[in-house]
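Structure Section — protein described below
Tokens — whole-number codes for backbone shape
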Amino acid sequence: MKTERFEGSITALSPIHHGGDESTGARATLRRMKFLIPADTETGIRKMDIPVISGNSIRGVLRRLVMRDMLDTLGYELKSIKTYHMLFAGGTLESVSSSDAGTINLELRKYFRSAIPALSVFGSAFGNQMMEGKMKCAYAIPKCYELQTYLPDGACNKKSITSYEQIADDFTTRRDDLHGERKDDEAAHQMIVNFEVIAPGTEFYHKFTLLDCNEIETGVLARALELWSERPYVGGKSSIGLGEVSLDYPTIGSDIYMKYLDENKDNVVAAITRIEEMLK
């Protein structure tokens, strides 16, 4: 068994809006997680909802970048929307005949893991098969006073900024540009949308864990981080300047993975083609 951990930090260079599940009127809130914080109370703890960046959001950014990069490197054009969904979004399980239901095709999984390292790292579902990804992507949690016990030693102390100070508000306006095309008795349609953001300068602690990865698969994560550094955005509304970040992770090196794609192009293309045929 082989376990590798890569700890790093994400720093907001512009406001970050990572939307939550709740919305009050026209105000969108941040994604929050409930933490149990040590406190001088009868129970010795208190509950706090603190904004975070979900591991699923970060993983999704990296998956899309590395899959697009793989196809561009191979010069391969996908022919099936199902294959696109399988590579870029994790796929979906499909119903099969009762005789095949629950059947695990180990040889097929082994083949795809070997031929398409990026698929092995990020995982996916195809047909009635579920392939678990070897990469575990943690939540990114802010370096704030309240989360001292959840952060590496020295990351925060009693003088650190609080989570409340890391939250700000922003807004966008939707203007009605129809002007002369409106009827005389028709009101203009204008709207102000308010939303919470994480303030620029906020630092997050984050980590990746790779389980039983070979050097080529480790190179997949390295390549994904390189691509993310070139397009360093997370969360929503990046088109209007939100979500830009600075990344600080250990340098891993993607050369072995890129060399694999170059030397095994035909094998990788054959595997993707087989997936396309399976998902017709």
